[in-house]
Structures are given as structure tokens and as C-alpha cells.
Amino acid sequence: MSQTERSVLNYIRHALGNHLSIPILWYISHHDKATYEQIRGYIIYVTNTDLKQALSELVTYHVLNDKQGVYTFTKDGQALVPIIDEIFQWAQTTAKKS
């Protein structure tokens, strides 16, 4: 594996590696925007600290914008929407086999 590949994979791990990232991104992708309270109501069994950290990481890595407590995708983050949908479809299909 090249150094460039390692760097890219490391970036992905940091930007999207939080266990809450996919549920957060899926929720926002289906609502265009969301407040902390809306996301908190959607994702159950999560601490406020963990959710705040996940949102902060997504903002830091330019996946989401935080404008006065309303989260939306950045232009770069918007490119993840089809990927999030594919992951969701994969999970629906494979979960039935488990």
C-alpha cells in the first residue's frame, strides 16, 4: 500500500470512522437539514457527549455545515449521499440473511 493510499484511508477513518457517522448522515440525507434535537431523537441509546463529538468531527472534516445549530451537507459532503444510500441498501439485504 502506498503512502498516499494510507493517507486517504486514514482521512476516511477520521472523517467517517465514528460509529454514529452513518446514521447521522443517513438521517440528514433524507431530511436535507436537521437540528441536534432532531438527530438526537432519531438516534436512540447515545449519549449527548458522543453525539456532539460525532457532529463536531463531521463538521471538522467538511462533511457537514453547522449554521446556528442546523446541520446540512457541505458541497463535498453531498457527494456521500449516494454512498450512504448504497450502504443502507446493502444492510437491508444482508441483514435479512443473518
TrEMBL record:
It comes from the Bacteria. Pfam families: HxlR (PF01638). It comes from Absicoccus porci. SUPFAM superfamilies: Winged helix' DNA-binding domain. Residues 18-96 form the HTH hxlR-type domain. This is HTH hxlR-type domain-containing protein. Transmembrane segments: none annotated.
